[in-house]
Every structure is written in structure tokens, then in C-alpha cells.
Amino acid sequence: MKKIPEAVGPYSAFRKAGDFLYISGQIAINPENQKIEAITVEEQAKQVLENIKAILENNGLTTQNVIKTTVLLDNIADFGAVNEIYANYFVEPFPARSAFAVDKLPKNVLVEIEAIAYCGK
Questions:
Q1: What distance lies between CA 49 and its chain's CA centroid?
Q2: What is the pLDDT along the chain (121 residues), one digit of tens a residue?
Q3: Predicted local confidence at residue 2, as pLDDT
Q4: CB within 8 A of 119, min separation 6: which ones?
Q5: 20-26 and 14-17 as β-strands: parallel, antiparallel, unpaired?
Q6: φ and ψ at 58, to 5 degrees?
Q7: What is the 3-state secondary structure (H, E, C) of 48-104?
Q8: Are 34 and 26 in contact, with CB atoms under 8 Å apart?
Q9: How far, in whole angstroms, is CA 32 from its chain's centroid?
């Protein structure tokens, strides 16, 4: 079982309900030490997606099970850089996706991503 980051508040990192796995917004926490070590938006996006991948794998799923993601960015100018990293984790048919720039993210990170995965057959 892969390590996953602990939630940074009173919420679950993920919850399964019926045929769906809901993954809370993940930030660039290194699950080995629960610290944010990634500095650039690219490094942070990679760590976020690795965290999502670990949660999926711990639930017997892959990124191909993801049907929807929401990407939150500190700066919309980082959209292209995050998109390049994101493209390394998903294949066609790609998940539906929304992306927003927000005022601030937890722990002053640059990117946060949440996901919904389908667990049914």
C-alpha cells in the first residue's frame, strides 16, 4: 500500500460512495514526511498527481478510472505548465475538467487538484 498524505484539516483525503471515489483537493504534500517540498508549479503539480495516483492505487483503481477533475491554481498563467504535467497522467478518453484561479490555496501552494473516479464495471 502506497503512502498518501494526511488531510490538513477535519476532512477525509478520499471517500467512497457507491460506485464512486471522491478525492479531496490534493496539494503537494510529500506523504513520506507530510511536508511541502516542491517549489515550482511543475514540481507541485507532479506531487499532487502522484498523491492522487497513490489514493487511486490504494483503492484498486488507476487514473483511467478518473471521470472528473477540478484544478485550482494560484495563478492562471500557470495553466499551461500544469497542463503539460497533467497530460502525463491521463489518457483518452480524458476526464472532464474544470480549472480556476483562486485567491489563495492552503499552505500557500500553487496548485490543488480534486478528482472523482468511477469504481463500477
A1: 5
A2: 778 888 878 899 999 999 999 999 999 999 999 999 999 999 999 999 999 999 999 999 999 999 999 999 999 999 999 999 999 999 999 999 999 999 999 999 999 999 999 998 7
A3: 75
A4: 16, 19, 20, 21, 59, 60, 61, 65
A5: antiparallel
A6: -65, -15
A7: HHHHHHHHHHHCCCCHHHEEEEEEEECCHHHHHHHHHHHCCCCCCCCCEEEEEECCC
A8: no
A9: 17
Contact 3, 13 (CB under 8 A): no
Q: Can you list the domains of the chain with their CATH numbers? A: 14-118 (3.30.1330.40)
Tell me the three state secondary structure of residue 40: coil
Residue 96 CB contacts under 8 Å (≥ 6 apart), including other chains: 67, 68, 69
Residues near 61 by Cβ (< 8 Å), separated by ≥ 6?
21, 117, 119
